[in-house]
């Protein structure tokens, strides 16, 4: 057989090449191949062990058997031309033949390739090995996730005063549930140590922004997800600083369940709970945003000033309960207290010996055993938009409040009445074909530009559009305001994900807190702790519903000068006069 014949064969077969063999190995092969028959099984035996042991699929085994047959047939054929040629060939020539050899001995080529190859052979063959290796592990991630949306989906918002440990607890939960691997955390820990901030490394799993990491303060609502046996959770890590309360309101408006994190450390709890502290404000805003169930995590119990003390835990509890009751939570049904340590992870997944006096379930098992939420998927489609960006089209983010959305569905963007089509649908970064209420979605839309969307716009189905308008009557509770509020007062309105300037144009009547009776005469002003019904007018057209029809889009907060002034609910939409 002429050596010129073998070259074209090997080039035709080049597509299947996985890796090549060293020049030295090659000369060894030529020497051994003279006695082809006794040697062939030996080569295969060596190849058999490392055949990507992790993925010993039946297909691979079949290919190995096939490969053995081919190799026994062809090794002797190829050995002949090699022998006829000079024993010391130039380095370029063996590569031509070497590219044929791994083709006959596919698994062997791979195993040799793993050990390391020389020169240009590596460059040509290694990429193919890499591709093959990368392709097979890839499907390992998705199969665990497509079933994720089938589990009950719950959005958990972490709220509380700045530096109470919200992001750290979020990061620790992600680590305990296997959403962040140990290696990544070790990397964060190293980086945090370099900045002499070694206790912050867990929070970096959620604070991905460089500015947030440098200052150790969350600015935007961090998102992550984890799964338990029964449920699929989305973590919304709200900022605790008072400058970023508007972001926190956006996060709370998507939540089904709030976790109020308070620090048990001496001095820190008191600061967060005093007037102007975020513990109070966040609890109130969560209630206004429609969060029904509240878990209070008493964090930093491992601190030397606390040392898992029951007295300190009870003290925090006693101070909080009356306030939470006043906000509107029922202490018996809606609130659950539990001690924990975010930094060490004590009492988050497993019970801890340090805390023998706490008999309840740890945090993650407690979440898993919460009762089911009632959500109807047959209502009208309502998806308030939280954020938008450009990525091969227009992408929007938001939580589906009611109804269900599927791929290729035609929807209407209110209040601008743009007709859009859903191109693709991601639920917690996993692509799905349809979504049910309560899921956090990313939608890629067709028929609208990113510039034409603002946070606070709503996606609806064409048969049942949401109401839009500028004027509405609402019942308002004045929570904190030094002076009186008269008609003409301006504030910032936060309703679902929408932020808009608003003016109180008229105060219609006062409402008695105890009896609910309305005053006969129209009041000239309202002051702190009073309840009134007022007419409000926004600067631009917004989407809203009455509280009775659709609670999620009918409750709002009024803020001014960085403080929450009032909370309220929409009673009636007033038609615009032309």
Automatic annotation (TrEMBL):
It catalyses: GTP + H2O = GDP + phosphate + H(+). GO terms for molecular function: GTP binding; GTPase activity; translation release factor activity. Residues 78-150 are annotated as: Disordered. Residues 85-94, 125-136 have a biased composition (Acidic residues). Keywords: GTP-binding, Hydrolase, Nonsense-mediated mRNA decay, Nucleotide-binding, Protein biosynthesis. Gene3D superfamilies: P-loop containing nucleotide triphosphate hydrolases, Translation factors. It comes from the Eukaryota. This is Tr-type G domain-containing protein. One of its GO terms (cellular component) is cytosol. InterPro entries: EFTu-like_2, G_TR_CS, GTP-eEF1A_C, P-loop_NTPase, T_Tr_GTP-bd_dom, TRAFAC_GTPase_members, Transl_B-barrel_sf, Transl_elong_EF1A/Init_IF2_C. Transmembrane segments: none annotated. Residues 114-124 have a biased composition (Low complexity). PROSITE patterns: G_TR_1, G_TR_2. Belongs to the TRAFAC class translation factor GTPase superfamily. Classic translation factor GTPase family. EF-Tu/EF-1A subfamily. Signal peptide: none annotated. Residues 151-377 form the Tr-type G domain. GO terms for biological process: nuclear-transcribed mRNA catabolic process, nonsense-mediated decay.
